[in-house]
Amino acid sequence: MVPKKRIDEILDGYDTSEITIATVCSHSSLQIFHGARKMGFKTLGLTTKDNTKHYDAFPLAKPDEIIKYSDYDEMSERNGELLDRNTVIIPHGSFVEYMGANKFEDFEVPSYGNRAVLQWESNREKQRNWLTSGGVPMPRLITDAREINEVVMVKYHGAKGGRGFFIAKDYPDFKMSIDSTQPYTIQEYCMGTRYYLHFFYDPLKKDGYMCKHGGSLELLSIDRRDESNIDEMYKMGSIEDAKRRGLYPSFVVTGNTPVVIRESLLPKAFEMGENSVNRAYELFGGMWGPFCLETVVTDKLDFKVFEISTRIVAGTNPFISGSPYADLIYPGLSTGGRIAMAIRDASVSNDLKTLMT
Amino acid sequence: MVPKKRIDEILDGYDTSEITIATVCSHSSLQIFHGARKMGFKTLGLTTKDNTKHYDAFPLAKPDEIIKYSDYDEMSERNGELLDRNTVIIPHGSFVEYMGANKFEDFEVPSYGNRAVLQWESNREKQRNWLTSGGVPMPRLITDAREINEVVMVKYHGAKGGRGFFIAKDYPDFKMSIDSTQPYTIQEYCMGTRYYLHFFYDPLKKDGYMCKHGGSLELLSIDRRDESNIDEMYKMGSIEDAKRRGLYPSFVVTGNTPVVIRESLLPKAFEMGENSVNRAYELFGGMWGPFCLETVVTDKLDFKVFEISTRIVAGTNPFISGSPYADLIYPGLSTGGRIAMAIRDASVSNDLKTLMT
Amino acid sequence: MVPKKRIDEILDGYDTSEITIATVCSHSSLQIFHGARKMGFKTLGLTTKDNTKHYDAFPLAKPDEIIKYSDYDEMSERNGELLDRNTVIIPHGSFVEYMGANKFEDFEVPSYGNRAVLQWESNREKQRNWLTSGGVPMPRLITDAREINEVVMVKYHGAKGGRGFFIAKDYPDFKMSIDSTQPYTIQEYCMGTRYYLHFFYDPLKKDGYMCKHGGSLELLSIDRRDESNIDEMYKMGSIEDAKRRGLYPSFVVTGNTPVVIRESLLPKAFEMGENSVNRAYELFGGMWGPFCLETVVTDKLDFKVFEISTRIVAGTNPFISGSPYADLIYPGLSTGGRIAMAIRDASVSNDLKTLMT
């Protein structure tokens, strides 16, 4: 990982009145660029592809400049020209995935958020330890497949974007579906409705919902993911019917819909967000900026958190002009805009080093 | 029930330039407080719990003051301090449920809307009589279980928030699932898409969609409820498969999604809203403010109303900054804001007594 | 079809500072009137029914005037009074369906968009040729029912608004369900999530996402349709169970929900939109204004376009005050508003003839 000292040196050399906000051209980049422009920043798109013409269609989200690299190695190596532009990068899920976690950790450009969180997010066991030791409820782990006596969710390690999951209804079903050459984990399948809670933790904000380590927690929006093909599979009669026809359920994320949660669940939701943040400070120096708790709410009105994303999620994209939650704090602001606001405020108060790693 | 005369006496003592809007801290309280603040009111949260920290996260919806009671009896008894603050209460579903209908009817604080509607809403038979005699189409009632020869919905009396319902596909299925120690009703199951129509009837508004008794009817928004666990149960293969595994469908409301209805259905929707209001005036002195018709639209494009809620529903929560319908009347206004607008206008025109019981 | 020369003559006689925007009172008319008022136009509703009272409830979308005709023949014949009002009509799906395609083609009032597109849209074979020859991916056609060896979608010709479709899982299922007295087409059933992409092509706009024939392509919003009764059919246990009880799946559109698509799919989406437009210019003089690609995204993240609508779709109705896409171009603008903006700009620059047929 880039030493924090190196990042601080770089920031010392920046003209903080001329910050450029950069991200990879995908995922939630329209929202990030749009928010950055709103807060008066220059914007820069990073890409290895030729498919950026669609930005022309969205003038309020089109980056001021796009740099095309032959690959992510080149992007890493040519960090100098980003530093020349006083660039800070906003990592999103695809940024980290495309560049590769290791390369991202070593990318010598100030990055919004704590890069140390990656190690705890990408390893399922460490993620579970972090959250459960913080008091966040997760689905129960089943360590021995022969003990499956209920419906379970099986996830191959490194499963991304909804691929590499399956639901097994019992042990025989598990046996029939498992590819045992790959490592996997088995957990209780939690039946209920899914809510992806988009939190934002600001270590520099000194009012609002205050947390133990001195910063303020916000809930900016909630979405539900569209998953192909599971969402429409019931049209096949039943999933059993579909399987007999060679059609197997998959969980590939293709989009997002806006949703709100029952208001009486908000206290619990905030408690889970707060616990995730507090424990992150104890374990690895903290987590700040946007993060997402991916939850199921059962018919007992209990939450189960099946995953945490420690940066902006694409589920914030429906809320480019605000949400039923953000509008109670910052009317009309998106998560992308909230990130830019944090960077703007920190550059004014000379606190950029607190936010960048 | 508090005599109307007593409420009017209380209002006579109010300083109408210093009205406080109060509600119980749950359900749609963020929206109610947000709307009240927008219209310039003081706001007051009523609670019996310690879980109100999340209001800190939403500064534009945080009540100016929160009073914590040990229980709802104490809330009733300490009504004096509410009167000292010139308080009017906005009842929502959880307010009435938590306090208890009887206690709510006797709560000596001016309440927005007609409390007499409660008797007609809470009793399934009276509700059905009210609506069907007004010409509102409801699912057919099946009075003798042995006559079940189609898919039916069975509801235990007093079922709340989505608990206490089940779908039976035939008589044997009914026999297997019914708990005959509890009273229940059986009705035709209406297959179709669900629309929860959020109406607002303003008896003091003299333009717009005018109704028989001199007020104006509005449609402010439409939602669909998320229900746990039924919404994701098809992932179990089929519901039959799930039942064999001991997983039974439930209908607990966990959140809401925004939706719009086919425009050609609006004339019928307004007719149903108008009929509900007109009949309410004939039967029990009227219904005003927000109410919700909970409907199914069949593939013949017919409505079936399976329930009416006679106060603000949580389904309005996605629309804190307006909706595709409200924006055609009051851009950016929520149902909570609409309630506050009605109270503001009535306090200016000295008509508060018309709105309060 | 009305000769273009005749339309141009009519436009020559118009007072372009006094244009009236008219449409049939249904479908997306609230949005069209709302958008037209925003851009300063007079508005006129055309109807053959008595059910227009609901417009009173939406003052910002209520047309300035409503003309009631006994039938669509009379509407055609009385075109003179529309010309007297300098009227341009905005055709929507119900307008064309109610009036009848032939009558609509001959209706002597300037109509926004290219009427020639109707011949290519309403004939399934021509529509398929247009799109696939343009490079837009569609579900594979199965020309001989005996070759069904996968799940298929069967559509009767002239199927409208979601009626007249069925899914067959194999040849025996097809045989059991088909009414062979009606003409039909069979296509591969594409499993995935549905996205209805609302594009807008402006031939007069000279910046943004430029297309081959000199105009600019926009994506204004995306919805998913609610379909009755298929959407809630899984509650019956499984569709097989339901069929045994005499309940058959149907696909009648009853409403719409807002949605966003995975950002990495946007380049492909724009390419499909652009290809549809470019090919339209080659085949029949072009397509401009709003159009909708009705797509499925598979779990391979491939698009399949199962239909094109060549005018405003009701799926734009959730977005009366903007959308996550429109807000990146014209904050707060609906498709109805965008149409009115195009007409306003063209009337200022004296280019109305380019937009009207």
TrEMBL record, chains A, B, C:
It is an enzyme of class 6 (ligase). Residues 181-357 form the IMP biosynthesis enzyme PurP C-terminal domain. InterPro entries: ATP_grasp_subdomain_1 (IPR013815), IMP_biosynth_PurP (IPR023656), IMP_biosynth_PurP_C (IPR009720), IMP_biosynth_PurP_N (IPR010672), PreATP-grasp_dom_sf (IPR016185). Keywords: ATP-binding, Ligase, Magnesium, Manganese, Metal-binding, Nucleotide-binding, Purine biosynthesis. Its EC number is 6.3.4.23. Coiled coil: none annotated. Its cofactor is Mn(2+); Mg(2+). GO terms for biological process: IMP biosynthetic process. One of its GO terms (molecular function) is ligase activity, forming carbon-nitrogen bonds. Residues 21-141 form the IMP biosynthesis enzyme PurP N-terminal domain. It holds the Pfam family DUF1246. The keyword Metal-binding applies. This is PurP2 protein. It comes from Candidatus Methanoplasma termitum.
